[in-house]
Write a structure and sequence with these properties.
By secondary structure, the chain is of the alpha/beta class. 38% of the residues lie in helices and 15% in strands. It contains 11 helices and 8 strands. Strands 6-5-4-7-8 form a 5-stranded mixed beta sheet, sandwiched between helices. A 3-stranded antiparallel beta sheet has the order 1-2-3, with no helix packed on it. The radius of gyration is 22 Å and the shape is elongated. The two termini are 37 Å apart. It binds zinc ion.
Length: 307
């Protein structure tokens, strides 16, 4: 009800966005003038030089034909529910005409969940890789192309888990795993892995490397690196429960981003804060047309967040 009260009108949504984009007040990008004329349709004109912009220009809301009110409701659906929202759920609740629109919106929002220049993990960090798309019992019967390799880094926070980073990589070789470690973890940190040789080179990259060797049955893996295994099982449960497992490999990266966003804010008491953070980040990223969103398949290394 509070949400409905805050964002009852298009103007209220625009004002909110305006405050996020220009927290210190409007500054004209051309002449640095601080005065702004607002038109009814959300345009902003600088009276000094005539420069025209809008609150949505350059954000994921740019060129949208739908009201901001509807976008804000979608963001609220995504952030207010602990497990997030599926495209079908968003389409239904918002009464959107097409599933495609709901799907595109969610993907645009997922792109906004990763803050550019975010800091890397530090301290003691467990790192391990797992699969998506392979049934536990049918692993041997499947081709590797059917499985996605996901690498997980999880900070050790006492007995618990601190922040996490996830990425899809082409395989579990050092060539794939090392760039992830470099991207995800601050040098000087302790990298805690099992004995897999894909991690053997991290000591040479400026990390302290702690290896826990697996002895005996595979089951023990969860005990040696309990945090990453907990994260992998939560991720799988979330993909199956919220998205019915209907996640293709080329879009898996975006789901990993959403899962990371949620997980790293799981202790945040206020759902409103999550909403604020997501709208704020959505107001910062550049707009991506639908065609590009569908066609683009991200690489696996540091480039993946840099489109
Ligand atoms: Zn100006």
């Amino acid at each position: 009800m509070e949400f409905e009260k805050w964002f009852a009108t298009e103007q209220a949504c625009r004002d909110y966005l305006f405050g996020l984009r220009w927290p210190g007040g409007f500054a004209c990008p051309r002449c640095s003038g601080t005065k702004a004329w607002h038109t009814k349709r959300g345009l902003i004109t600088c009276p000094a030089c005539g420069y025209q912009t809008s609150v949505t220009a350059g954000t994921i809301f740019q060129d949208t034909h739908k009201p901001l009110c509807l976008w804000f409701r979608a963001i609220w659906l995504v952030t207010s529910q602990k497990t997030g929202a599926s495209a079908l759920g968003v389409q239904r609740v918002l009464g959107l005409g097409s599933y495609e629109t709901a799907w595109t919106w969610l993907h645009k929002l997922r792109r906004a969940m990763i803050r550019p220049g975010r800091e890397r993990l530090s301290g003691r960090v467990e790192v391990d890789d797992g699969y998506w798309g392979a049934e536990e019992e049918g692993v041997r019967g499947r081709q590797l192309e059917d499985k996605a390799v996901i690498v997980v880094a999880a900070e050790e926070n006492g007995a618990g888990i601190g922040r996490i980073r996830l990425a899809r990589v082409p395989d579990a070789s050092a060539r794939s795993l090392e760039p992830f470690v470099l991207m995800a973890v601050e040098p000087g940190s302790v990298i805690h892995t099992d004995g897999w040789n894909g991690y053997a080179g991290v000591a040479a990259k400026g990390y302290a490397h702690e290896i826990s060797l697996l002895r005996g049955r595979k089951k023990l893996a969860a005990k040696l690196l309990p945090r990453v295994h907990k994260v992998i099982s939560l991720l799988k449960r979330w993909l199956v429960a919220t998205h019915q497992g209907a996640v293709s490999h080329e879009h898996l990266d975006y789901y990993l981003d959403e899962f990371t966003f949620r997980f790293n804010r799981r202790t945040s008491r206020s759902r409103g804060k999550l909403f604020y953070r997501l709208v704020q980040q959505a107001a910062q990223v550049e707009a991506v047309p639908y065609q590009q969103l569908v066609k683009h398949v991200r690489g696996c290394t540091g480039e993946r967040h840099n489109l």
